[in-house]
Write a structure and sequence with these properties.
CATH topology: Heat Shock Protein 90
CATH class: Alpha Beta
Strand order of the largest sheet: 2-4-5-7-6
EC number: 2.7.13.3
Keywords: Kinase, Transferase, Two-component regulatory system
CATH architecture: 2-Layer Sandwich
Number of domains: 1
Helix content: 25-40%
Catalytic activity: ATP + protein L-histidine = ADP + protein N-phospho-L-histidine
InterPro entries: HATPase_C_sf, HATPase_dom, His_kinase_dom, Sensor_HK_Regulatory, Sig_transdc_His_kin-like_C
Strand content: 25-35%
Protein name: histidine kinase
Number of helices: 4
């Protein structure tokens, strides 16, 4: 665990999936808040969470043909002591029943999925003292959001 700028972690994760975004014709918009406070985290594990959320978003948008395929990644700081990161896709959305269970181990909505990706993401985020959740959105698609506590500076 080391002090990290979540925006740097996001940009590194994006670089790792750029070829997949291009090959699947998915646009990516990063709306990263400037000068966010540092978090304490494991860079590789947090990149894994971001990459998994982006890859899931790419996969669910494969069936979209009537509008642009776009992912949006937003970083921000909440009113408390947390940094937030949200990954929104423009896919077909998710059934209400699935939203309650999609973070559970071995639950999947994919025909070829194992149901471990989001569960592992949740475990990583929780190990970092944060929380992974699904945010309902009015337009098509799903937003996965996670919060991470700010790095505590000791004097």
């Amino acid at each position: 665990m080391e002090p990290l700028d979540i925006n740097d972690v996001v940009n590194e994760g994006i670089a790792l999936v750029m070829s997949e975004l291009k090959s699947q014709h998915v646009g990516l918009r990063a709306e990263l808040a400037p000068a966010l406070p540092a978090i304490l985290g494991d860079r590789v594990q947090l990149q894994q969470v971001i990459i998994n959320l982006v890859m899931n978003g790419i996969e669910v948008m494969q069936v979209i043909e009537d509008r642009p395929r776009e992912l949006v990644i937003r970083s921000s700081k909440d009113d408390a002591s947390y940094v937030q990161l949200a990954v929104s896709d423009g896919g077909i959305g998710m059934a209400e029943d699935d939203m309650d269970r999609v973070l559970d181990p071995f639950f999947t909505t994919k025909s070829s999925g194992l149901g471990m990706g989001l569960s592992i993401c949740r475990s990583i985020v929780e190990t970092h003292g944060g929380r992974l959740s699904i945010v309902r959105k009015p337009e098509p698609g799903v937003t996965f959001q996670f919060t991470l506590p700010l790095r505590k500076v000791t004097s």
